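Table S2 (text version). Query chain:
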Amino acid sequence: MTNLESQISNTQYPIKETRTARVHRQTKETQVEVVLSLDGGGEYEIETGVGFLNHMLSHLALHGLFDLTVRAQGDLEVDEHHTVEDVAICLGKALDEALGERVGIVRMAHSYVPMDEALAFVAVDLSGRAYAVVEADFTTPRVGNLATSLIAHFLETLAYHARMNLHARVLYGRDDHHRAEALFKALGRALEAATRIEPRRADVPSTKGIL
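Corresponding structure-token output:
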């Protein structure tokens, strides 16, 4: 073992006592604030101006057992793109910040979630490296006031700023509302499992000794 490897292996990172984060982002297009607690009870207060996005984030919080507050104001007179993107940026950054050094976490998890006739799968690795693969085809251009093309963009942006691997797939389904809902529920459940503290682990879950 080299001196550098020895230093890494002997480094002790404390688990964050309070795994919470607050992220604020203001641009000429949007103003977004996200408050996230990983060790919550699924309580949420979400208002983005995009009703279907509110609905999806509510599922993420409830099934992830995260306490989540999202407040966003954006240039919806243009369209919802900037708002959706900036909410994803802030939520990703909040997840990254709340995880801290990622000591003791399970790190990798997945979930299958059915929603009536639809079935979705999400796998995550809180590896510190950003990558996203999203296979989710929708048959309609919009669900409510959200363009379905923005669902993949939201997930890709979230993965980048959370520094995680995210693989998301809608296996099948007829109703686009159900497809999207299953996807966000699966994301919540996968993140809940991956962010959980493993009591048998006192270090970072990586052979590198750091994430």
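Notes on Table S2: The two ends are 19 Å apart (CA to CA). The longest strand covers residues 30-37.
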